[in-house]
User: Which sequence fits this backbone?
């Protein structure tokens, strides 16, 4: 079973960030669902149902937002922003050990932290 957790972390290394923490199988599932939306392009969406929450990926020009709700997260990204996220997720997949990457976003914080096997 995969683990994917998303939260607004107000005290992450001195700043508020959106933390996306996953194990290896969670990373694979997240990449798969995000890639589906990315390949469909602007106006498209895809979903990932995880044990903890529902993730909806929406492609919208000019967006870099994460909407956190109880039991649901909506990822609203432009094609270029989602492409950046996918590139970093793929690099994390190839890493032999725990790893993370940072992505600039618009809301609800300025930074999205992508983490594999560190905070799960």
Assistant:
């Amino acid at each position: 079973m995969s683990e994917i957790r998303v939260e607004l972390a107000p005290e992450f290394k001195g700043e508020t960030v959106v933390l996306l923490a996953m194990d290896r199988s969670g990373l694979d599932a997240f990449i798969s669902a995000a890639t589906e939306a990315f390949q469909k392009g602007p106006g498209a969406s895809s979903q990932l149902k995880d044990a903890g929450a529902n993730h909806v990926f929406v492609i919208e020009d000019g967006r870099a937002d994460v909407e956190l709700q109880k039991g649901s997260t909506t990822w609203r990204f432009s094609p270029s922003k989602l492409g950046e996220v996918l590139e970093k997720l793929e690099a994390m997949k190839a890493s032999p050990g725990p790893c993370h990457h940072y992505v600039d976003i618009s809301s609800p914080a300025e930074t999205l932290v992508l983490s594999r096997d560190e905070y799960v």
User: Anything to note?
Assistant: Strands lie at 4-12, 15-22, 45-49, 54-59, 64-69, 72-77, 99-104, 111-116. Residues 55 and 77 are 13 Å apart (CA to CA). The longest strand covers residues 4-12.
